[in-house]
Amino acid sequence: MRSSRFRTIALLDTSVSSTNVGDEIIMEAVKRRLAPVLANDYVCRIASHETMSAKSRGMIAGSDYVIAGGSNLLSSHAGLRSVWKLSPLDAGLGPKFVMMGVGWYHDQGAPDPYTAWLFKSLFARDKLHSVRDSYSKNKLEALGFDNVLNTGCPTLWELPEDINAATPKRKANNVVTTLNTYMKDRRADAALLSLLTRKYERVFAWIQTYADQKYLQELHPSIELVAPNLPAYDALLTSSLDLDYVGNRLHAGIRALQKRRRAIIIEIDNRAREMGRDFNLPTVKRDDAAALEDMIDHPKNLNIVLPREDIRRWLDQWA
Questions:
Q1: What total number of domains does the chain contain?
Q2: Which of 195, 248, 269, 289 fits a 20 to 30 Å CA distance from 122?
Q3: Which domain covers residue 145, as residue numbers?
């Protein structure tokens, strides 16, 4: 037990006020990894996806640190388009915000002056920040932060130690897929479903947001839908069914890898592309149908490489 006083930690919960069940996958990993290092602290939770109320600001004001848990919270235009709903009033709450596997919102230019001022006002200088990819690390370093580690998303921290050896290499008989209705491409998505129905005996589709069901049924009415919650998806992944994952949603693919399922993650934005490049995740470009078919058909060795020492350094600073 820590001999000094107990700390108060505010946790920005990215799964609250979110329509995306993928945020639950992220926050599960965040909470699991923080539990041992914050075991003697008081932890309160605040929503990141809506503008903070006076009560939330009061909770943060009374906290020693604020940990931002995963997701693409960072943006070059915090005042215009950002998942993280910050306002100028929040600048006075820092500098006590600490990033944990946070990433950048799409490909963007340099942060505008307002965003640079806000981040410099909020982000702690006496703690290590953790981001999910080198792109996000470079963005923060360009703002003058020299205390940033590229650890990957906390969901990657939950991958089994034997992930490369234990994950099947050969194609399964069945597959579960996901489509992203936020970045839909009807031609590409229809082609994906057509390919999967040709390659696999049964094709399941997990509903990750409430818009997915209608879109999937429009493209392929006979597809087998999995209920829009994490327990239903986990039940499929841990079943005795011989199963691959091939789909557009990054964290559905990472969840499959956590459960030692063979996975192919289709890159539809910067998240899968950047983490795929940094950590050798099994990703493929959306417009490369030939590469996707080759990955499905032919055995491939998995070679995921995680920065476990930097992950340890980030966690150890809270001990």
A1: 2
A2: 269
A3: 8-158+308-316
Burial class (CB in 10 A: 0-12, 13-18, 19+), 285: middle
Domain annotation covers residue 221: yes
**CATH number, domain with residue 260:** 3.40.50.1000
**Confidence band for 4, pLDDT divided at 50, 70 and 90:** low
> In this predicted model, what pLDDT tens digit does every residue of 257-266 receive, in sequence order?
999 999 999 9
Q: What is the pLDDT of residues 204-260, one digit of tens each?
A: 999 998 889 999 999 999 899 999 999 999 999 999 999 999 999 999 999 999 999
Same domain, yes or no, for 38 and 80?
yes
Residues 6+ apart with CB under 8 A from 215: 179, 181, 184, 189
